[in-house]
Amino acid sequence: MMSGNKSNVNGIASVRPVASWASIFLDYLDLKAHLLAVESREAGSHLIGLVIISATILVLVLCSVLLYAAFLLFLIALLFHLAWGWSALICGASTTCAAMLAFFLLRMRLRRPVFQMTLNDLAKDREWLSQSKTKES
Fold it and tell me: Is 109 helix (H, G, I), strand (E, B) or coil?
């Protein structure tokens, strides 16, 4: 009778470490899921803001470019006494350069990291994994 209880206690003791590791792993997954949910909402609002701002800028830029291009065309033809065709070519080249400048400015704005909290967590996880690997070796 006593030996049966002893083997049962040893069986429970060997299961507990596995259960605690499983609990830790599940808690870790739960925290990462919550982080993913928070950052998904953050990314969604960031994306909607960028779309609205980009659409507004696009409409305003198109209207402005059309009016400025017409004025620039008139100004070039008047100042340099060029034909309308040459004036239009110079005007098109200058507006193309302005559009490329605007594109590069927007591209620099979009390169900022959005998920700064996740990047910090991943760096901490990498550091922890490298420390635990060196301890095991």
Answer: helix
C-alpha to C-alpha distance for 105 and 73, rounded to whole angstroms: 26
Give the torsion sign (CA, 109, 112, 115, 116). negative
Dihedrals phi, psi of 47, to nearest 5 degrees: -65, -45
Q: Which two tokens stand for residue 17?
A: 């470490």
Instruction: Give yes or no for residue 1 having a pLDDT over 50.
Output: no
- CA 10 centroid distance within chain: 51
DSSP secondary structure letters along 83-95:
-HHHHHHHHHHHH
Per-residue model confidence as pLDDT tens digits over 15-34 = 566 678 888 888 888 888 88
Query: CA 38 to CA 135: how far, in whole Å?
Result: 34
- Which pTM value belongs to this model? 0.38
Residue 34 tokens, joined: 């919550």
pLDDT tens-place string over residues 93-114: 887 888 899 888 888 877 776 6
